[in-house]
Amino acid sequence: MRDARLLLTTALLTALAVCGAPEAAARMAAPPTLAEMTKSAARVFRGHCTAVKTGVATIAGARLPVTTYRFRVREHLKGRRRATVTFRQVGRPDGGPRDLGRLAGLPVYAAGSEYVLFLLPVSTAGMTSPAGAGDGAFVVSGDMVRAVHAGPRTSGPGGLAPQALRAAGPSTTDAMSYADLRRAVLAEVRR
Predict the structure, then answer these.
(1) Number of folded domains in the chain?
(2) Which of 69, 68, 75 has its CA nearest to residue 47?
(3) C-alpha distance across the termini of the chain, in Å
(4) DSSP secondary structure string, 42-107?
(5) Which H or E run includes 164?
(6) Range of the domain at 38
(7) pTM for the complete prediction?
(8) Nearest in space to 78 (alpha carbons), one of 49, 34, 31, 119
(9) Tens digits of residue pLDDT in 115-125
(10) What span, in angstroms and rounded, lies between the C-alpha atoms of 136 and 132?
(11) pLDDT digits (tens, 9 = 90+) for 129-155
């Protein structure tokens, strides 16, 4: 029994490390700026979520719930250009308060909605998540974007994380225009 508990604890700690929990912990100390998220992201794009599929993956010997998201890319800002981007992220949209994705502060995405994502490089476990956890995912509404956040700074999924937007410039509060976000990302990519 003790060995099983030790194996499970080790697997969960390894999974948190592989899936970006250090990013989430760092985010709680100081929210990342758009420049920091752009630097750490392997890919930044604007796109529509077209599919959400839950499943299970074996990570560090533990079977963990994961969600596979597919996006139709509207505009590439950084990284490899593809018409669609598919990635796996730890956790499930309906995982509840003890869900590993929710505990790590990872956002969830709704099919049919449009987002700007700052995705970290894919881990050896085949997982990724946004840079800065929920701070690296923005929901698009018309010409505006708002940061999506699922972590402890908000009341739940879909809440606002204005810290990253405020860091983009002195005139932003909880939302900014997509044109301003795009301009800031492309300026950082050119550096």
Answers:
(1) 1
(2) 75
(3) 54
(4) SEEEEEEEEEEEEEEEEETTEEEEEEEEEEEEEEEEES---SEEEEEEES-TT--TT-HHHHTT--
(5) helix 162-166
(6) 2-190
(7) 0.75
(8) 119
(9) 999 999 999 99
(10) 5
(11) 999 888 899 999 999 999 887 444 433
